[in-house]
């Protein structure tokens, strides 16, 4: 049965599993398997680090370190760095060999040699071949005590070396400070790079996307305090784009100065734009109907006129007629027996279901006849005379097209 190691990247919620043979796996092999399993490429543009799950600040630094099976580690990717012309990246885990820390090895060998020299003084007590086992054990403990006493004497004579920051270290600390205007989009603060965000080591942290105010005039922005945002952060939600929004649906934005704001629509300008747009559409509709009415009268088409309207106008689909007056030959009180559906239904209801043309009673709404043939004739007439009308039907055009024709400038809405 193969062994497993559990790992998780800091930005992930669920754990992943690496299978291997044996009771333990080296840090080098584990990093190589993680890169291969997640298809991270050649590893030349990033570095992969592993941390203890119980102590997120404690890193597995050496590639030769061994991690027992069934362990749980945290993985983190960081940008590749270069020092003294040498690149420090994860490419060696893909096609290289484990890196040996020669400084650690040399120090370890030196310490081992020093201890070995101290553990073998020139004058160690000797026992004869006939010595008992208890005497040998007692002599072993005595020798260890003598070695430890000598080591303490040497350590007491060592000179203490205090840490002194170098010019290189000071320059590095200055570079670690982000420039003015930089925002960490993981936590929303501006005093650190996103790679140094304190929430990177928090596996339970769930970052929310905060939009910048780029392109939005300041007059349309309402600044909100950081305390108010932190107080109401529990009620914030995210939309389909992942943007943070409040209870009123306003998107939470962040300015170049690192302050929070929400976008306020210019309602006055928008209402003026809508009023102009509606007036232009109404004017265009009236002009079209007036031109169409003139053509109907010009070509003597009384069957296309609305006889129930107080003002002369052309019929619109759907068009209906009563069963007692199915065509123009039955016209008596009215000049036309074809009517708009809404108008004929209202007239029947108001007149106790009496026909407005011949006066017949019990003409119910469900008995009206749909004049599909007349609708088709009217449509063909309008299409054939569209050139004489000089404009298209406004009902078939969008409001934006009507605005362009009337020279109304389109308003941008936040």
From TrEMBL:
CCHC-type domain: residues covered: 184-198
GO cellular component: cytosol; mRNA cleavage and polyadenylation specificity factor complex
Major subcellular site: nucleus
Coiled coil: none
Compartments in which it is found: Nucleus
Taxonomy, superkingdom: Eukaryota
Species: Candida parapsilosis (strain CDC 317 / ATCC MYA-4646)
Biased composition (Basic and acidic residues): 387-400
Domain DWNN as annotated: residue spans: 5-79
GO biological process annotation, one example: protein polyubiquitination
Keyword terms: Metal-binding, Nucleus, Zinc, Zinc-finger
One Pfam family named in its UniProt record: DWNN
SUPFAM superfamilies found in the cross-reference section: Retrovirus zinc finger-like domains
Listed GO MF terms: pre-mRNA binding; ubiquitin protein ligase activity; zinc ion binding
InterPro entries per the UniProt record, alphabetical: DWNN_domain, RBBP6, Zn_knuckle_CX2CX3GHX4C, Znf_CCHC, Znf_CCHC_sf
Region of interest called Disordered, as start-end residue ranges on this chain: 387-414
Protein name: DWNN domain-containing protein
């Amino acid at each position: 049965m193969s062994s497993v190691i559990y790992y998780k990247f800091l930005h992930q919620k669920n754990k992943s599993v690496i299978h291997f043979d044996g009771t333990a796996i080296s840090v080098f092999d584990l990093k190589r398997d993680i890169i291969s399993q997640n298809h991270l490429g050649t590893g030349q543009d990033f570095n992969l680090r592993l941390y203890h799950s119980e102590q997120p600040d404690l890193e597995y630094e050496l590639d030769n370190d061994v991690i027992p099976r069934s362990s749980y580690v945290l993985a983190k990717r960081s940008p590749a760095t270069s020092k003294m012309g040498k690149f420090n990246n994860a490419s060696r885990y893909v096609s290289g060999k484990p890196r040996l820390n020669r400084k650690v090895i040399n120090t370890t060998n030196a310490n081992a040699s020093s201890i070995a020299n101290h553990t073998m003084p020139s004058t160690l007590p000797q026992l004869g071949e006939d010595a008992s086992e208890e005497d040998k054990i007692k002599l072993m403990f005595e020798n260890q005590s003598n070695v430890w006493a000598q080591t303490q004497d040497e350590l007491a004579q060592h000179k203490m070396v205090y840490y002194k920051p170098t010019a290189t270290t000071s320059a590095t600390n200055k570079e670690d400070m982000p420039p003015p205007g930089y925002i960490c989009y993981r936590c929303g603060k501006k005093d650190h790079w996103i790679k140094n965000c304190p929430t990177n080591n928090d596996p339970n942290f769930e970052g929310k996307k905060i939009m910048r105010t780029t392109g939005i005039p300041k007059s349309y922005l309402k600044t909100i305090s950081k305390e108010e945002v932190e107080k109401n952060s529990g009620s914030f939600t995210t939309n389909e784009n992942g943007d943070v929004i409040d209870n009123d649906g306003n998107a939470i934005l962040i300015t170049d100065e690192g302050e929070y704001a929400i976008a306020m629509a210019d309602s006055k300008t928008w209402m003026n734009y809508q009023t102009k747009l509606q007036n232009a559409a109404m004017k265009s509709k009236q002009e079209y109907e007036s031109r169409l009415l003139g053509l109907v009268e010009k070509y003597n088409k009384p069957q296309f006129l609305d006889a129930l309207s107080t003002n002369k106008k052309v019929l619109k689909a759907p068009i209906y007629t009563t069963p007692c007056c199915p065509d123009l030959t039955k016209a008596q009180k009215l000049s036309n027996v074809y009517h708009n559906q809404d108008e004929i239904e209202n007239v029947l209801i108001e007149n106790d279901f009496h026909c407005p043309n011949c006066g017949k009673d019990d003409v119910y709404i469900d008995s009206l006849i749909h004049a599909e043939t007349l609708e088709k004739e009217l449509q063909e007439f309008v299409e054939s005379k569209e050139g004489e009308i000089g404009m298209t039907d406004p009902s078939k055009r969008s409001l934006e097209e009507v605005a362009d024709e009337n020279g109304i400038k389109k308003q941008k809405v936040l």
